[in-house]
């Protein structure tokens, strides 16, 4: 049974589905593409193959708020806390269900963006990823290490880029506004015969705000982002794809959040991916082989230079053994290397293999299992696994998931370890249990989920050195979506959580006990005018120095007006009520700055 709650004017989609059939290749219509997700078992597949709850942010959602960078588009996902250390271009922290940023896997078209040497301790290159040319963003919460490897303790964020299809087309968008912001985006895509393509160039520049809350000078930021892919249909049953992106960013930072300063930071990241996919005409077997090369370089204003690169190979398959049973398996290998100008030179090799099965036990009752084995040449081998279920009846559905995980330290953490010979990988287990109901023919939906995670030997800092500590996190998520009419839809999400450092008996830093967010969408009957009002509330929390940080609420507005079939005018406003708030504090407890009321006006031409 399938539940799909879809916003009438392009709001986020909440999907809770299970397993059935295998994917097929070839050109797909927009309607078919709307029924495809990737995050479930690392291949494009119908949504009914997904075990558990998933939040999907569509291209229409992204177009409504016009956020230039990925993390801003994620701020209202249930259970997800996004915190930036200052204005645009500053480092970003991502906490999913209270997990550390490095414990949530960030993927782009199924490829992990894990950095082997991230000086911000996030584990992933996130701050400079553009939202241009994105088809959808899929967020799966809960431990998923058995499918996605050592880093998926918190969950998965998968970015799916647009594929070329149909006659050549494109668009040019220009936006300008507060903080001397200018963003120019050009994209094109299309297909002919067996080939299709999609390319985008995006430049975003702004004077920004001071990272020091009490500062007077701005911290400017600019980012040049290039991304593209080419797909070629080798035959009726196979396809070859080449995908890549490059982000080249320059920002200015202060002396943490304490005082103004001029510390220019350069960050450059790239990814190049080749993928061969094969599925016989009987559609009972699917296989994919991929090779990836990715690199990261950061030069901060204090003279530190960090470099990292990774070469990866992966092979995965899914076999439909019967109408009710499918089996997936895969092998992955990665070589990481991280260097710095102060002597750091660390290399790691990793192998992993997984087995994943999905069984339709009876009508409306599904189970899923997964087992994974990982080996790191600096650490012992490790096995993880998970089991999940989904039971649907009438308009109700119950679901649950139990999984184990582990996270090996990257080159940065290994170098800064208090004792690199005794530093241990993180390991633990997570579980969630939920109940949901839809009514009014799918126009309304409510969901309630309990979750808990325990982590042993989690990486933490003590006197500027990395050590292991034990932590716990537990909480609940509530979601409510309903359509008041054919033109108005509302989404609400509430998260309540507790996190704790077990040894020190204190809250984990920057994890609020309460988060509440919502979106109200409205569109005119002729679809010419559309407006979206969103808000996010972040409750009080403990921050660095064990000091309390006050709660805050921020409201944003997005609107678009279709002048002609090929012309749109769009307006976005952030922090409507000019709230003075701080998302993060520095290690000394000083709050970082944030932007006041801002407005941005743009125009898009489609051809």
Q: Which residue ranges are poorly predicted, with pLDDT under 50 across at least 5 consecutive positions?
A: 1-35
Our count of helices gives: 5
Taken together, the total number of domains comes to: 1
Shape: globular
Describe the structure.
With 607 residues, this protein is mainly β. The protein is 4% helix and 60% strand. β13 (181-192) and β14 (195-206) form a beta hairpin. It is globular, with a radius of gyration of 23 Å. Residues 1-35 have low confidence and may be disordered.
Protein topology:
Blueprint (H helix, E strand, L loop, with lengths): L2 E3 L7 E5 L12 H4 L2 E2 L7 E2 L5 E7 H7 L4 H4 L6 E5 L7 E5 L7 E5 L2 E2 L21 E8 L3 H4 L6 E7 L7 E9 L3 E12 L2 E12 L14 E15 L2 E18 L3 E20 L6 E15 L5 E16 L4 E16 L4 E18 L2 E12 L2 E15 L2 E12 L3 H5 L10 E14 L4 E19 L2 E19 L4 E14 L12 E10 L5 E10 L2 E3 L3 E3 L2 E13 L2 E8 L23 E9 L1
Parallel strand pairs: 8-11
Antiparallel strand pairs: 1-2, 2-5, 3-4, 5-10, 6-7, 8-9, 10-11, 12-13, 12-35, 13-14, 14-15, 15-16, 16-17, 17-18, 18-19, 19-20, 20-21, 21-22, 22-23, 23-24, 24-25, 25-26, 26-27, 27-28, 28-29, 29-30, 30-33, 31-32, 33-34, 34-35
């Amino acid at each position: 049974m399938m539940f799909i709650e879809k916003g009438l004017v392009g709001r986020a989609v909440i999907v809770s589905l299970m397993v059935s059939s295998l994917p097929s290749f070839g050109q797909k219509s927009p309607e078919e593409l709307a029924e495809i997700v990737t995050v479930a078992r690392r291949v494009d597949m119908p949504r009914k193959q997904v075990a558990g709850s998933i939040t999907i942010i569509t291209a229409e959602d992204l177009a409504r708020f016009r956020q230039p960078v990925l993390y801003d588009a994620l701020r209202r996902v249930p259970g997800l806390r996004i915190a930036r250390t200052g204005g645009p271009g500053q480092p970003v922290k991502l906490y999913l269900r209270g997990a550390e940023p490095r414990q949530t896997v960030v993927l782009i078209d199924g490829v992990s963006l894990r950095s082997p040497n991230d000086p911000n301790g996030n584990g992933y290159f996130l701050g400079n990823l553009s939202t241009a040319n994105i088809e959808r963003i899929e967020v799966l919460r809960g431990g998923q290490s058995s499918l996605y490897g050592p880093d998926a303790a918190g969950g998965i964020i998968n970015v799916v880029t647009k594929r070329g299809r149909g006659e050549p087309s494109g668009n040019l968008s220009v936006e300008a506004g507060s903080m001397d912001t200018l963003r120019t985006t050009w994209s094109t895509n299309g297909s002919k015969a067996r080939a299709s393509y999609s390319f985008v160039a995006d430049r975003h520049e702004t004077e920004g705000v001071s990272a020091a809350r009490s500062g007077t000078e701005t911290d400017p930021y600019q980012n040049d982002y290039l991304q593209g892919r080419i797909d070629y249909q080798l035959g009726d049953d196979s396809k070859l794809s080449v995908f890549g992106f490059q982000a080249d960013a320059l920002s200015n930072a202060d002396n943490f959040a304490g005082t103004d300063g001029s510390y220019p930071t350069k960050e450059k990241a790239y990814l190049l991916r080749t993928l061969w996919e094969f599925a016989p005409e009987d559609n009972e077997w699917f296989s994919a082989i991929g090779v990836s090369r990715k690199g990261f370089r950061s030069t901060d204003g204090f003279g530190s230079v960090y470099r990292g690169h990774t070469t990866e190979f992966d092979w995965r398959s899914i076999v439909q053994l019967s109408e009710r049973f499918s089996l997936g398996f895969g092998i992955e290998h990665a070589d990481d290397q991280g260097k710095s100008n102060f002597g750091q030179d660390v290399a790691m090799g990793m192998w992993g293999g997984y087995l994943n099965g999905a069984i339709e036990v009876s009508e409306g009752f599904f189970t899923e299992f997964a087992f994974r084995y990982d080996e790191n040449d600096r650490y012992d081998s490790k096995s993880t696994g998970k089991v999940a279920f989904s039971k649907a009846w009438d308009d109700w559905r119950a679901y649950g998931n139990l999984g184990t995980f582990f996270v090996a330290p990257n080159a940065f953490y290994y170098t800064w370890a208090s004792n690199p010979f005794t530093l241990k990988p993180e390991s633990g287990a997570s579980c969630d249990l939920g109940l949901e109901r839809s009514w009014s023919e799918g126009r309304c939906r409510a969901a309630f989920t309990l979750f808990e995670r325990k982590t042993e030997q989690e990486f933490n800092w003590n006197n500027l050195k990395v050590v292991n500590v034990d932590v716990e996190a537990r909480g609940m998520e509530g979601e409510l979506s309903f359509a008041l009419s054919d033109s108005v839809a509302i989404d609400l999400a509430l998260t309540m959580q507790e996190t704790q450092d077990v040894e020190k008996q204190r809250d984990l830093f920057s994890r609020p006990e309460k988060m509440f967010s919502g979106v109200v969408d409205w569109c005119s009957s002729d679809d010419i005018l559309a407006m979206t009002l969103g808000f996010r509330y972040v409750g009080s929390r403990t921050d660095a120095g064990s000091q309390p940080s006050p709660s805050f609420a921020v409201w944003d507005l997005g609107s678009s007006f279709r002048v002609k079939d090929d012309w749109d005018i769009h307006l976005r406003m952030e922090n409507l009520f000019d709230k003075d708030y701080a998302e993060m504090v520095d290690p000394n407890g000083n709050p970082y700055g944030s932007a006041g009321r801002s407005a941005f006006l743009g125009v898009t031409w489609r051809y």
